[in-house]
């Protein structure tokens, strides 16, 4: 077949087969199709809905399999425009930073502090297990980090961001994205499966009772519902929020360029995260501007969804299959590790009471998957055994943004080890 070219698509014949090259507009159209198909599949499939599998993951994996089949049957490869991926995941991490309100620490008090200690210690444990197991099995230790706190406590967004970093020099780990997406997806399912049973075991084992007797008939939504009318997202507020994103992106990318090659060099998404944190809390402290959290969250989630859809639909599933055995061995070990840890450490350090058991369910959720999984675990436990208002304060605060901040520091510390060059 000869080469051809349309406004949106190019076909290039070469010695290794045929490559279809999609421009930005056609790539963006396919990404939107991935998200729509993922939404329909997730909505209609009980398993996907129950375990909070992200829409981009559902649609992206389906399209990745489709492209793999087409490449084998018709000897054709697909090349999509990738230029807009970088700004999208930077926008997502800016949204995490802008959502990190340090004033909210007061809401959790001592319980949040103790829970935070338990969570942060486990970040180190996840990476020690990951690097140790992969070193014993003779695999790249970066696989251990990717199947450690990067994805299991960080989720798909953090996994994809570090995956992009590890694919480049000096790491040159070409299957980093594939490993990250597989690990994060496993973590979502595992976190949803183990959280409720572990919490129920502790509640029954120690005959624990809820302390929120004044809310005995409440659900989590009722406890935290606000009487005020919900603030609307308008064009004016949206522009203000975009201005904050622009400032954080500029600051973060500038710091990346300034620190490049120095001892404090960090990936650009980390600097953008920190820039968002500084801007949010500085503006709040000096009463310059109050960040519209829900609007910032919407912008960040949209950017992450588009980024993940494009990332996952272009996964190299063949290369991932070669790592299936060592990756699954490690992930099973990580699952056993978090069960033992939350049972004997998180539960103990948080007070060995009913609230502690509920926080165990939450820790399983975002310690293996993501904050939505943690909230789903909490809702399941409290619906069966009674309310825990402190757990619904502490778990979202820790899982929503503070664990991401701690995770960045822990990962960077591990990358200083001689084993990573």
Automatic annotation (TrEMBL):
The keyword Transmembrane helix applies. Keywords: Amino-acid transport, Cell membrane, Ion transport, Membrane, Sodium, Sodium transport, Symport, Transmembrane, Transmembrane helix, Transport. Coiled coil: none annotated. It comes from the Bacteria. GO terms for molecular function: glutamate:sodium symporter activity. It is a multi-pass membrane protein. One of its GO terms (cellular component) is plasma membrane. GO terms for biological process: L-glutamate transmembrane transport. It is found in: Cell membrane. The chain crosses the membrane at residues 20-41, 53-74, 86-105, 112-137, 175-199, 238-258, 264-286, 298-317, 323-342, 354-378, 390-417. InterPro entries: GltS. Belongs to the glutamate:Na(+) symporter (ESS) (TC 2.A.27) family. Catalyzes the sodium-dependent transport of glutamate. This is Sodium/glutamate symporter. It comes from Campylobacter portucalensis. The gene is gltS.
